[in-house]
Design goal:
The protein is of the alpha/beta class. The protein has helices spanning 25-41, 48-61, 72-82, 99-107, 126-131, 152-162, 214-223, 245-255, 258-276, 305-314, 344-352, 364-382; strands spanning 65-69, 90-94, 111-115, 137-140, 165-169, 177-178, 181-182, 189-193, 207-211, 298-301, 353-356. It has a seven-stranded mixed sheet with strand order 1-9-8-5-4-2-3, with helices on both faces.
């Protein structure tokens, strides 16, 4: 983060939600170089660039294997299929997540068993998961939401006792650690998304499954490419869910910067906390004991989110809501029969959460601008009648 005391005039009123690769000329040139190499080699489907990234990402995640796939959704769906989980089975997961976690369960043919989350962390806990156990449950998917790690040891112990699998949804937690272990490395498998805005983002969709169980990695590799091995011998019904060579080449370059970028996100989060201290906002919870937070998102909660977002917009500060409709209240999952009020913590958070800008390289003046815009909500609350302060 740069130092300074005043908001530069030319940049005043412009705080984007994310910073993309185009804003880093040196990185952009390196990425364009590897894209050119892939194009010149016509190494578009699997091949050396995918294999190289898989080896690098497995080493980074401290697992034996990594399998590149087409998206984070595919990663979870294929992980479930690799474990033989499907029709008639149930999978426990938090309702406070992006719908893709539940979609992947449905794609695999199983049924999501949605549970509420801890009111402080917003994450699933072993205690909440245990209440949802039944004879049909075959797996639990803890979600490291926003980049904050779930308290994994109690969940792993619960899963061992219940003899069910654990698949970590680490799609927002690239590089985070829990008790010294990388997110994604603790369950049977860990799943990642490389959507462009993620801490490790591709130039399109992409994902990966990591594991230290070679038989599961082998199964995912088979499933991601039509169940084919060798060519035209289709051993199982698979799909087209391969990570392509262009994305792998981009990701391999960016992986070398991930720890530095995560450190910048943590520093930015600390500055944001200071800038927002004393305001009528609920700031992100501190990581669980021996846990971590890599701040894919910096999510606050407000009793008047609409006013907060309007005030931010009036000051040129971007914001977003992750996620405004809980999974169980979407039309897609109405068939689960979870009525309003059935998962109250998740439902309350959906009405109050607001994601503020955070990204590597965010400048001090931008953080101050976020704090100043948020501070005016309190002033607006005191106005009669209520109005935005321009």
């Amino acid at each position: 983060m740069s130092q300074g005391h005043a908001i530069p005039a030319a940049a005043a009123g412009t705080v984007p939600f994310v910073r993309m690769d185009r804003d880093d000329p040196e990185l952009l040139e390196e990425l364009l170089g590897v894209v050119r190499t892939v194009a010149e080699e016509s190494s578009f489907i699997l091949g050396q660039h995918v294999e190289g990234f898989e080896a690098d990402f497995a080493a980074y995640c401290e697992t034996d294997e990594a399998v590149g796939v087409a998206s984070g959704t595919d990663a979870i769906a294929l992980a479930l299929r690799a474990l033989g989980i499907g029709k008639g089975d149930e999978v426990i997961l938090p309702a406070n997540t992006f719908i893709a976690t539940a979609e992947a369960v449905s794609i695999a043919g199983a049924t999501p068993r949605l549970v509420d989350v801890d009111p402080v962390s917003g994450l699933i806990t072993a205690e909440l998961a245990e209440r949802a156990l039944s004879s049909k449950v075959r797996c639990i998917i803890p979600v490291h939401l926003y980049g904050a790690t779930v308290d994994m040891d109690p969940i792993l112990e619960l899963a061992r006792s219940a003899r069910i699998a654990v698949i970590e949804d680490a799609c927002q937690a690239h590089g985070a650690r829990y008790r010294g272990r990388r997110a994604g490395s603790m369950g049977h498998m860990g799943c990642f998304s490389f959507y462009p805005a993620k801490n490790l983002g591709a130039w399109g969709d992409g994902g990966a499954v990591v594991t230290s169980r070679p038989e599961l990695a082998d199964r995912v590799r088979l499933l991601r490419s039509h169940g084919e091995r060798p060519r035209y011998r289709h051993r199982v019904i698979g799909t087209t869910a391969r990570l392509d060579g262009l994305q792998a080449a981009v990701l391999r370059v960016k992986l070398r910067h991930l720890d530095r970028w995560n450190a910048q996100r943590r520093r930015a989060a600390a500055e944001l906390r200071r800038a927002l201290s004393g305001l009528a906002l609920e700031l992100p919870a501190a990581p669980v004991a021996a846990g971590d937070h890599v701040y894919h998102l910096f999510v606050v909660q407000s009793d008047d989110r609409d006013l907060l977002r309007a005030q931010l917009t009036a000051r040129g500060v971007a914001s977003a809501v992750h996620y405004p409709v809980p999974v169980h209240r979407t039309e897609a999952y109405a068939h689960l029969g979870l009525h309003a009020g059935s998962l109250p913590v998740t439902e309350s958070m959906a009405e109050r959460v607001c994601s503020l800008p955070i990204f590597p390289g965010i400048e001090d003046w931008q953080i101050r601008a976020i704090g100043a815009a948020a501070a005016e909500v309190a002033q607006a609350d005191d106005d009669s009648p209520r109005s935005l302060v321009a």
